[in-house]
Write a structure and sequence with these properties.
The protein is α+β, with helices and mostly antiparallel strands. A hairpin with a 5-residue loop joins strand 9 and strand 10.
């Protein structure tokens, strides 16, 4: 019988399809972001499951009333998995400094992006945790990369195909003895056309040399439109974290950013 079929298809004839559990979103989600209490999800597996299910559906969720101490984000990771250590260590501290060596150590705003596209594989679930935020501004923003990709597909089908069919190059060489490179498409599809990943980070993008000359105008037009959609306020959900608050993002899908600070004191 049909209800027992194992090979049900969900728009698999459409390149860039998504499974039914995946919910795309834009700024309309601002008043409906799922937020859980740290102590409750730590004690109640059902509430933990509901919180993680929101991450599965929307690509991100918030957590409040967590401990305010160095390394607190590891306690969030312990709820569901483990930490994959990188050249940055177990975690990367975002703070403001007088003489910064990294853009993350400045009070400048950052464009929404996915992290570390120069890694293969890229980081998957990422935890952004607030210990201190005494500065003005510094709001966090998240953007649904899947929503962006599907909007681009509707507006510019050939551009969508260009970003999905050809690899971009990403590179990091920001510290002595470390050089990381990756060559992957900005829009990643499974062989059956399912949309499974987004890589978008202008600061880490290396020269794009894998696109045929005749396709390059279409590729760059699509890249530019992708950027415009990322920067569109109607696509973003924004909130300001307080000490002990955090949010988790699926870095293969959700782009995140922060607005600029007025003053210092955030970490």
């Amino acid at each position: 019988m049909q209800e027992n079929a194992y090979d049900k298809h969900e728009k698999k004839d459409e390149k860039g399809w998504l499974p039914s559990i995946t919910k795309t979103w834009d700024s309309d989600l601002n008043n409906a972001v799922l937020t859980a209490n740290f102590s409750e999800v730590a004690k109640d597996k059902q509430k933990l499951g509901q919180w993680l299910n929101a991450v599965k559906q929307y690509g991100f969720a918030k957590l409040e009333n967590g401990p305010v101490e160095d390394g607190a984000l590891t306690k969030v990771a312990d709820l569901f998995g483990f930490i994959r250590e990188t050249n940055y260590g177990k975690w990367f501290e975002v703070r403001t400094e007088v003489n910064p060596t990294n853009l993350a150590y400045t009070d400048l705003g950052l464009q929404a992006h996915t992290d570390n596209p120069y890694r293969n594989p890229v980081p998957t679930l990422q935890i952004l945790y607030c210990l201190e935020n005494s500065a003005e501004g510094g709001d966090s923003m998240v953007v649904d990369g899947f929503k962006i990709a599907q909007t681009l597909r509707e507006e510019m089908p050939e551009g969508f195909d260009a970003l999905a069919n050809y690899c971009a190059r990403f590179e990091y060489a920001g510290e002595e003895g470390v050089k990381l490179t990756s060559k992957r498409p900005m829009i990643e599809l499974n062989p059956d056309g399912e949309l499974i990943g987004i890589r978008f980070n202008n600061r880490s993008c290396a020269p794009i040399t894998d696109v045929p000359f005749e396709v390059m105008p279409t590729y760059y037009a699509a890249y530019r439109r992708f950027c415009e959609l990322v920067d569109d306020p109607e696509m973003a959900v924004a909130f300001k974290l307080q000490p002990g608050e955090s949010f988790i993002v699926d870095n293969t899908r959700v782009l995140h950013a922060r607005k600029g600070y007025s003053g210092a004191g955030a970490r």
